[in-house]
Structures are given as structure tokens and as C-alpha cells.
């Protein structure tokens, strides 16, 4: 597999420094991407750069994932109009552990010579004094060079602290340290990171290669991937509830799966190339099938399956599919019976839920009472509204249509506790207490 050609056909190559293709063809090359621990989880906006590391390793090269325990204390000003909130060391450590666990799902850390490695830049910055850092890095990069970077120029009008101004020098030193101690020759990232990354290549050139006849031996390389945007111009990676996270505790597998399933037809050709490991031939065949029957959402389902399994496991994907069938698909009573107790909260997260006591059940003389009085108006606000909905064939309980508003409350409670009430296309869960 040719790494650069793989990125080209997938539309994942934005820019690169000269000589990188020759370097990758010549020998196994170590490359890295940095992730600042500004949250306890990475989000799907990080997936495009994670996939760079995945493809690098698949091509036989060695990936490094850098968790920025030190640079996370500063915050990257790239693409921002204001300074980031300061995070405590305790919060940063917590975030770092979560990110480490997530990256381990994508990279092989036991594949021999090209096994992935994870590093933390706090490990080398903690022993460097301010004066030592100025001598090590500051004297080699001019202020003119740093100010010329887009990430700096865009902030000069609104204000940029010296702390943030120093970020590109810190990131440049990361590259130099990894080059010197780990043999890393390549840094990658999103297109907004080009300025920071090339500061690293320049620092390596000036510290290691300047004034020698061995400059090629000391050459470092930069590569960026396009930032992901949606076809309609809205920001990628956001849902109605905010960021779509890789941590199941912050974004459930069901919500994660639904995000991809709701992708537009216009976005799918790019998403399936960037975020899945499907081959070029497989993708073209899926696109052909999708174009013949767009209503089947073949591309959306293929993307959702591939990405959900790799982020949340096969079990997480299976649960997400089951939840989708229950809430939106053609699930039956048998499907509901198959839901385990510990799955209910996951599947019905976000679905309105109402507790019904044994006394309220005992006082419900029929289905109409249960759906109005016993639920304290949470399902239907009045007996009249509940009765009309039943007569109009708009109510199902546990996926079975309710036809008689005077029918007794003789129902099968799922797991002896739950009733799923479907009001047209909307769902409501009753819980017996």
C-alpha cells in the first residue's frame, strides 16, 4: 500500500513538503500527530487525523500519537478568536487517560517494528527551565517567522497573549524532540496546523542540518489533510446536542450511529472515503447501489456500521441498530422482549419517561386511564385526547396497536417494569415502580 496514493484517492491530502514520497518509499518512516487533552474524550472532528495514523501504519510505517500534557496547558490559538480556558493539571491528566484509551482502538501497539507508540510531551517539557528552552528553541526561530503564520496574524487584531504566541514554538520543539529521540521524520495534522507543523520542520533544519553537507539526513517532513466540512456549509461533528464524542458515556453508541445514519447524500461520498477502511472498489460498488435506490440509504448504513464498530465495538453497533429498529424501524414485541435490563437506559436515552406507581395502576380501570390519569398527563394530557388517539388507530403499546379505549390494563410489562407507548412516530416509556 502506498500511503500518499491512498490519501490522494480518498481526498485526504491537502498539502505536503517536497521529498516526502521519496522518503516513504525509501524506508519505514515514523510519523506523528498531536492531540491536546482539552476534553476527556476526542470527538469525530478528530477522526480524520486519527485516520492519517491508521493509514500510515497500514502502509508499513510507524505511527506516534502525542498527547499534549504540556501544550494542553497553553492551548493552540489556531482557528480561534479568543484564548482557551485554563485547565488544571488534574483535569489534564484525566483527559489524557481517556484519549489514550480511545487511540488504542485504532492503532496496533504490538505489530513489531511499526508498532504504534504513545508519548506525552509533558515528559520532556517538565525538566526544561524557561531559560533552557529559550536557548534550545527560541534562538533558532525569529519573531518575524512566527508572526507571519496565519494562526498568529488572524489574532493580532483581537489580541494574542505571549502564552498562546509561544504555542507554535512548543509544538515545533515537540517535533524536534521526537526527531532527535524517536527518529520521527514526519508530522501530520489538519490543514489549520500547517503553520505549527512547518515551524517544527524549520527548527529541525536549523538545529540539525544548517551548514552541513548532510542536510538530507536531517530533513523533516510535513503533511496535512483537509478540514472536514459539510456540503451545506454547516460545521462537521456537531449534532443537536453539541459535539459528537468518541466516549460512549458522552455520546451513546446509538446517538453516534444515528449521526452517521442521518448524513446527507451529498456528504456521504466524502465521509465514506475519509472515515472508513473500505477499499476503492467496495466504495464504488456501494455508490452504484446507493444511486440506484437512494431511499435505502445504503451509503449511510455502510458508514455508520464501519465507524461505529471501530469506535464502539461490534456489541455497541448491534445495540445501536437494535435501538434504531425499536424507535424508528419495524421492531416487534419479540424485539422488545430481547432487550436486556442494562440496555433499556441506553436504547431509550432521550425518550420521555414517566414512572407509574402500583397504586396508580390499580386505580386505572382501562387503557385510557393509564395513558392519561396514571401517567399524570405526561403521555396524553386528558382522557378525551387519549381516547381520540386510540380510536384513530394512532396508539401502540409494545409495538401492538391498541384498538379499544375501554380495554383493561392487562399488559405485558417488559422486564416486568417497562411499557413502550408509541404515539404515532413518537415514543414514551412508562416505568412501573
TrEMBL record:
Motif 'HIGH' region mapped to chain: 37-46
GO biological process assignments: tyrosyl-tRNA aminoacylation
EC number: 6.1.1.1
CDD domains for this protein: TyrRS_core (cd00805)
Annotated residues for binding of ATP: 238
Domain of life according to the entry: Bacteria
Annotated keywords: Aminoacyl-tRNA synthetase, ATP-binding, Cytoplasm, Ligase, Nucleotide-binding, Protein biosynthesis, RNA-binding
Family matches, as InterPro entries: aa-tRNA-synth_I_CS, aa-tRNA-synth_Ic, Rossmann-like_a/b/a_fold, S4_RNA-bd_sf, SYY-like_C, Tyr-tRNA-ligase, Tyr-tRNA-ligase_bac-type, Tyr-tRNA-ligase_bac_1
Function: Catalyzes the attachment of tyrosine to tRNA(Tyr) in a two-step reaction: tyrosine is first activated by ATP to form Tyr-AMP and then transferred to the acceptor end of tRNA(Tyr).
Assembly notes: Homodimer.
Protein name: Tyrosine--tRNA ligase
